[in-house]
Design goal:
Layout: H1 3-15, H2 20-27, E1 34-35, E2 40-41, H3 52-60, E3 69-73, H4 79-87, E4 92-97, H5 100-111, E5 119-123, H6 126-132, E6 137-142, H7 156-162, H8 169-179, E7 180-191, H9 195-203, E8 208-218, E9 223-231, E10 238-247, E11 250-251, H10 253-259
Parallel strand pairs: 3-4, 3-6, 4-5, 6-7, 8-10
Antiparallel strand pairs: 1-2, 7-9, 8-9, 10-11
Helix pairs in contact: 3-4
């Protein structure tokens, strides 16, 4: 399957995530490495494959404060760490992953990248990592699991990767607030319907929203995702919107500009 068809398929998951199992069985496309412009990701051992959510977060997360250290919570394939390594000069880019197979694959993807000397994956739960790590990070990113309200599968590995009971928002926020440096940024992508709840939970830990991006699949669809950036400093919240397509398989210039450094066909 050509790269442009990969992109089209991932966009379909924004509006119909339940189609994942059918397409995976029917075509087996996720077993192939995913090639970006500057790196390749193997994903056959990971329950959750490369998707639009991760690419959006990796491309959108702000680097204006020039972070020296970055942490990806729940790395999966390692895509966020790799994207941020491409975009930044951060000397330390760490990731944590609890699943055995995903951890091994993330470590392999890091090792095979042009930035292997700056990337490291820890095989640990967030709770273990938070309790053992004394250092803080200038940027923390997370594409958390959040489909617990919809359905569960017979695949325990995928359930662990994708369902919010594996990483409750309260636990994520508490850990991020401890691991984030005083002037650091915390960026996350969540369902739009969870936005206010997440912001409320974050405020209790001193994390305040600075930037919000709302994502629609097309001009007529509802907002599906919220990308949120938090810090310990109160600022006027800047909210913007991103539409991915103008019509079927015709991408907006904003989406192209955001992802063109990564997708081969953008």
């Amino acid at each position: 399957m050509k790269q442009k068809n990969y992109v089209k398929f991932y966009l379909q998951l924004l509006t119909n995530p339940k189609s994942l199992g059918f397409w995976n069985l029917k075509f087996g496309i996720f077993m192939k490495p995913f090639k970006f412009k500057q790196f390749t990701i193997k994903q056959d051992q990971c329950a959750m494959k490369i998707g639009t959510d991760a690419v959006l977060l990796g491309a959108w997360s702000s680097l204006k404060h020039k972070p020296d250290s970055i942490l990806d919570i729940g790395s999966g394939t390692g895509i966020l760490g790799l994207m941020l390594a491409q975009r930044s000069n951060a000397e330390i880019i760490d990731a944590i992953e609890i699943d055995d197979k995903a951890y091994e694959q993330c470590a392999e993807n890091f090792e095979n990248s042009p930035w292997s000397d700056r990337l490291f994956c820890y095989h640990a739960s967030l709770e273990e990592f938070k309790n053992e790590m004394d250092d803080t990070y200038d940027l923390i990113v997370c594409n958390p699991p959040f489909y617990s309200e919809d359905y569960k599968t017979n695949n325990s590995q995928r359930d662990l990767a994708r369902f919010s009971d594996a990483m409750p928002f309260e636990h994520l926020i508490k850990s991020a607030s401890k691991l984030l440096s005083k002037n650091g940024k915390f960026a996350v992508i969540i369902p739009f319907k969870e936005e206010q709840h997440f912001i409320s939970l974050a405020s209790k830990k001193g994390l305040l929203p600075n930037y919000i991006l709302h994502v629609r699949g097309n001009t007529s669809s509802e907002i599906k995702r919220s990308l949120l950036e938090f810090s310990f400093r109160k600022r006027n919240i800047k909210t913007t919107e991103l539409i991915i397509e103008t019509q079927r398989h015709h991408y907006t210039q904003d989406y192209i500009n955001l992802t063109k450094d990564f997708y081969l066909k953008m």
